[in-house]
Design goal:
This protein has 354 residues and is an alpha/beta fold. It is built from 11 helices and 12 strands. The model has no long low-confidence stretch (mean pLDDT 96). The structure holds flavin mononucleotide (FMN).
Length: 354
């Protein structure tokens, strides 16, 4: 039987108006103090036709910032900025959770003035964008066992601030090679304490963060994104099934808002996790594409997903859901304005209904 993706879906108590999710997308347009601005609020409000918006990756602490002009959620000024965003989206009838992205070893002193931190002191291959252009990545500081509690506290504090700002919840970014993924992956985690060495140990830190955040704001306000097998940001993993099974087994009793999979749906990992996890699952294609209506319909109809996340489609077409429903043509994304800049390529994509 075919499911109507345009019909409401009761995700937790959020009551989504449809099953389309705007995937998290870094846009590097935060204002002073890396606080969101009225321009950011306008951008998200334009896209409130999504059942759920997941915001761009947002640092829960100063050292968790990997790129210039990404927003934070660790100061009062940033909370005030996020309130503009939350209010504008709610006013437009949407729902919005903020993605908490601690970038870990993906970062640079030239962005934050701080040495990046990671599970282990392993420098990632490749370069990172800084205010001074592309630069080689640097050796991160390996977090001590004692320091881990501070990182958990930063996630908890940022989540409390998200609710204070009026956002509907948080998504923990445990995908795409950032800090939480660095703990899961044996290529970046060679720890010899209780947080490394086995699939259960590598999953432990992520489960601890999720447990602490759920205890602070309620499990029904917390989603999590994972990307098993992705190699983005020099991440490398073996024992993938065992590690993600350990993770999902640890998350299962929490009763989180959702599990969000960012991976090629043709791999087997996502299907196995879907079977293992009893809560709602968001599926996105993880760049394997295409993120079109037919793909979303197939994922939901086959039982592989409850909700379908689309990235670049929402970036370029603010009224994407209405256009998918009517069959209208979509706008073309402009790569040159993805990261950084102002209104151009951000809030000026044409809206048919406007
Ligand atoms: C400009 C841009 C920025 C992105 N930033 C993030 C991010 O901050 N966090 C994240 O989890 N994924 C990020 N992604 C990945 C998207 O969430 C999504 O998985 C990806 O774009 C594939 O979906 P699509 O083919 O529908 O665009 C980003 C993608 C794009 C295009």
């Amino acid at each position: 039987m075919s499911t109507d993706l345009f019909a409401p879906y009761p995700l937790g108590d959020l009551g989504l108006k449809n099953r389309f999710v705007m995937a998290p997308m870094t846009r590097n347009r935060a204002g002073a103090g890396t606080a969101p601005t009225a321009l950011n609020a306008e951008y998200y409000a334009q896209r409130a036709g999504a059942g759920l918006i997941i915001t761009e990756g947002t640092q829960p602490s100063a050292v968790g910032q990997g790129y210039p002009n990404t927003p934070g959620l660790h100061t009062d000024e940033q909370v005030a900025g996020w309130r503009l965003v939350a209010d504008a989206v709610h006013e437009a009838g949407g729902r919005i959770v903020v993605q908490l992205m601690h970038t870990g070893r993906i970062g640079h002193r030239d962005v934050t003035g701080l040495q990046p931190v990671a599970p282990s002191a392993i420098t990632p291959a490749g370069q990172v964008f800084t205010g001074e252009g592309m630069q080689d990545m640097q050796e991160p500081h390996a977090l001590t066992t004692e320091e881990l509690a501070g990182v958990v506290a930063d996630f908890v504090d940022a989540s409390r601030r998200a609710i204070e700002a009026g956002l509907d919840g948080v998504e923990l970014h445990a995908a795409n090679g950032y800090l939480l993924h660095q703990f899961l992956a044996d290529g970046s985690n060679v720890r010899t304490d209780g947080y490394g060495g086995s699939p259960e140990n590598r999953a432990r830190f992520v489960v601890e963060v999720a447990t602490a955040v759920a205890a602070e704001i309620g499990a029904g306000r917390v989603g999590i994104r994972v990307s098993p097998g992705h190699t983005f940001n020099d991440i490398s993993e073996t024992e993938i099934e065992a590690t993600y099974e350990a993770l999902v087994t640890g998350l299962e009793p929490l009763g989180l808002l959702y599990l969000h999979l960012a991976e090629d749906p043709s791999t087997s990992y996502g299907d196995a996790l879907r079977k293992l996890y009893s809560g709602p699952v968001i599926r996105s294609t993880g760049f394997a594409g295409p993120s079109d209506l037919a793909t979303g319909q197939e994922l939901v109809d086959s039982g592989a997903a409850d909700l379908f996340a689309i990235g670049r489609g929402f970036l370029a077409t603010p009224d994407l859901v209405a256009r998918l429903q009517s069959g209208a043509a979509l706008n073309e994304p402009d790569l040159a304005t993805f990261y950084g800049g102002g209104a151009e390529g951000y809030t000026d994509y044409p809206i048919l209904s406007a």
